[in-house]
Amino acid sequence: MSAPVLRLEGVSKRFGGLVVTDDVGLDIMPGELHALIGPNGAGKTTLVNQIAGQLPSDSGRILFGNEDITSLPAHARANLGLARTYQITSIISSFTALQNVALAAQARDGSSFRFFRRVDDEADLNSRARVVLDDLSLTERADIPAAQLSHGEKRIVELAMVLVTKPKLLLLDEPMAGTGREETAKLTQVLQRLKGRLSILLVEHDMSVVFLLADVVSVLCFGKVLASAAPAAIRADPRVIAAYLGEEGG
């Protein structure tokens, strides 16, 4: 059996006397799309920040592959192949979609980054960026300034900016937030296309998206993992229904 891409062992985070994540244990397997759900305030974003390295853990271990990354800063984790997106898009509005993705590739390369050198003069960077945008069905919008893109298209550009760095694990923090029905459907199709290519941890409130996409669903409640199982088992679990799914309308 394959080893987990990511393993959390007893991970906890406190803010003063408030326990936000409490002895969390979690495994994400290679190629798995693992959804993390739970009520508002359950600790989901805090846990993602701990995994990504934006927040230090007070206890427990975080293993990425065979490496203990518990003490590593965020940039070191990113260099190992752990990448994330945020609830709020972080693209440069005056740049085109292609330029934003090429800039992400340039920043990831490190040694090729030059403040005085135009990204659109870099043929290799542009080629790599265009391949990713093509793969995400955004070819026709590649040369459009990001300011003119829809919210859903910006989400896809942000996803492309992460994918061009070739991560091993992708952390998605509410990618559907603020999107309409059509944009949600398009983003869902993009994630379906990515399934199996890399491991994904998806934090999402849209239960229709979660149950359509996820291989495994973990439910976080008051900082603890209440249940972790296949979607059908989670949907039928009376504890999950009482703690969360009931308030979501089933």
Explain this structure to me?
The protein has 250 residues and is α/β, with parallel strands linked by helices. The protein has one domain: P-loop containing nucleotide triphosphate hydrolases (Rossmann fold), CATH 3.40.50.300. Helix content is 36%, strand content 24%. The protein has helices at 44-52, 74-80, 97-109, 123-135, 151-163, 181-194, 207-213, 231-236, 238-245; strands spanning 6-15, 18-28, 33-37, 59-64, 67-68, 82-85, 169-173, 199-203, 216-221, 224-229. The protein has a 6-stranded mixed β-sheet with strand order 6-7-8-3-9-10, with helices on both faces. Strand 9 (216-221) and strand 10 form a beta hairpin. Helix 3 packs across helix 4 (123-135), helix 3 packs parallel to helix 5 (151-163) and helix 5 runs parallel beside helix 6 (181-194). The longest helix has 14 residues, at 181-194. The radius of gyration is 18 Å and the shape is globular. The model has no long low-confidence stretch (mean pLDDT 89).
Key features?
10 strands, alpha/beta, Rossmann fold, 36% helix
Order of helices and strands: EEEHEEHEHHHEHEHEEHH
> What does the average pLDDT come to?
89
Assess the beta-strand content as a share of residues: 15-25%
CATH architecture: 3-Layer(aba) Sandwich
CATH top level class name: Alpha Beta
Main sheet attributes: strand count, strand direction, barrel closure: 6 strands, mixed
Which regions are unreliable across 5 or more consecutive residues at pLDDT < 50?
Answer: none
By helix and strand content, what is the structural category?
alpha/beta
What is the distance, rounded to the nearest whole angstrom, between the alpha carbons of the first and last residues?
Answer: 34 Å
Q: Please tally the β strands and state the result.
A: 10
**CATH H-level homologous superfamily name:** P-loop containing nucleotide triphosphate hydrolases
Task: List the quaternary state of the chains.
Answer: single chain
**Number of structural domains:** 1
